[in-house]
Design goal:
Residues 25-123 form the TolB N-terminal domain. The protein is mainly β and 429 residues long. Helices cover 9% and strands 47% of the residues. The two termini are 30 Å apart.
Amino acid sequence: MRWFGIVCGLFLLVVPLSCFSQRVDIDISGGSKSRVNILLLPFRGVSSLARDPLDIVVDDLNDSGFFRVERIKNKSINDSVNAVVDASVWKSRGFDAVVNGRVVAIHPGHYELNFAVYDVNQTRYLVNNKLALSDNKLDKVAHLISDEIYKSFLGVNGYFNSKIAYITKKNGNYELHTADVNGKNDKTWVSLSEPLLSPKWSYGGDMLAFVSFERKKPVVKILHLADGTLSTLANYDGSNSSPAWSPDGSHVLVVLTKNGVSDIYALTASGTDLVPVIHSSSIDTEPVYSHDGKSVFFTSDRGGSPQIYRYTLSTKRTERVTFVGGYNVSPAVSSDGRYLAYVSRQEGRGYVVMLMDLSSGQFWSLTLGPNDESPSFSSNDQLIMYASNVGGKGTIHIVSLLGEERYEYKFFDSKVISPSWSSSSVVEQ
């Protein structure tokens, strides 16, 4: 949603942005010019599992834009984890690596999965690992395998085992959902006839803060994913909105209008010890902590138009961050503190997602517009998820930090706002 609409239209019904559902199509445009070619051999013993987790590994890596995975299902191939790999054969066929493994039953429904990644160019194993596996954790372990393969070649952690959260409107109800990054394992946590907004993950992945209109006004709630319970974080006079977690999970920033103006406050995750953080006669909203928790980025019109500012907590100094363009909103900060993503309105392009290198001040556009919003960094800071609406058809997109790879997630049959990407693995029921 546009920044002005969030601040001044909180008591109006939200106009949904995108279409979303449990069915997912993924289209990739751009993509790395040189992908890592991987041969995935059949894992011995995988037939004893309820489902084959390697199907997920193939989709994870191919959808990432950095890998091209070919799978062989011929079980006659020697597939023991420590088998000697004929590097020259696989290299001559254009492969950069071979993945093989085995599954060993420990007791009913529980297994040990061994897998290895062999680099045929360096003629050495990059990964040789053992994972505990159970029938109800097949997807999670598959994503862990994908993460390890990703890291072994790219040198950064994978993101496949993280989660996304989003709000849908379907059959007259607003629903809070979580799902795997690939759109699978969709789960509905909250369903109301009144609007829901702004889901935000705690850094530990065990809680989601969000805004609920169930009391006919915006109230900030917390969903505890371990048991599915809800608690009220902020329910003061006026509106309560824009929750944002501190990196250590101990505090949450919120925007309150209890004194007649839009100010930013902090309170504990249990909803106590309310403390004013940023106050002015202008509209201050959309706060987000810096990666180290020492400062707060936020949107304000104190300079005459919506721009992004940074407030240093120790010195109480405020400095403007964005200067180019008359409308820059929705800040999101990478977990390493290097990048700031935000939404900018540009002439002839509409609303696009921008990225700024905070050390140099350089910035560039990541998306094509014209209606892009709600940027959210992946857990490894290499990708950004955002929502888009073109021609009345909504989609969720993922883009690399250079804007080279774009993945379009098409969800149908419901409408969505506010996609949010978890910063870590998630604790759920």
